[in-house]
Amino acid sequence: MAPRETNPNFMNGVPELIILRLLQHEEMYGYEIVQAIRERTDAVIVVGEGVVYPVLHGLEHDGALRSRRKTVNGRSRIYYSVTATGSRRLATLSKTWTDLAAAIQTMLTGGHHAKTAS
Question: What does DSSP assign to residue 76?
C-alpha cells in the first residue's frame, strides 16, 4: 500500500497566525494576548500562557517579533510588536488559512474546491 499524502501540520500555525494578527497594529504583553484571543474569538479559541509564550519566543527568535521591557503601573512587562519579517509571515499564513477555510467550507456545502492561482 502506498503511503498516504497527509498534512501533519494541519493545525500548526494557528496560535502563530492569531498572535501575529493581534500584534500587527498594537504591541501587547503575553497575558494580554491570552485574554485578547479569548475575548476576540468569543472563547471559541482559548490558549494558555503555556502556548503563547513559546510561540512569542519562537517568533522573536525568528525575527518576526521584537520585544521591549516597559513598566506600567509599577509592573514591568515585556511587550511584543511585529517586525517587517513578521508582517510577511502573517501575509503568508493568512493566505494559507484563507485557502484552507475556503476549501473546508466548500466541502461542508457539498461543492468542489477550485484551487486559486498563487
Answer: E
Q: What domains appear along the chain, each with residue ranges and CATH number?
A: 14-106 (1.10.10.10)
Record the pTM.
Answer: 0.81
In the chain the beta strands, taken as DSSP E runs, fall at 28-29, 65-72, 75-82
| Contact between 38 and 49 (Cβ < 8 Å) | no
Please say whether the beta carbons of 87 and 25 come within 8 A.
no
- Per-residue pLDDT at 117 exceeds 60: no
Could you tell me if 5 and 82 are in contact, meaning their C-beta atoms sit under 8 angstroms apart?
no
Instruction: Give the C-alpha distances (Å, rounded to integers) separating 56 from 11, 63, 74, 82, 90.
Output: 17, 11, 23, 11, 14
The whole-angstrom separation of Cα 47 and Cα 33 is 9
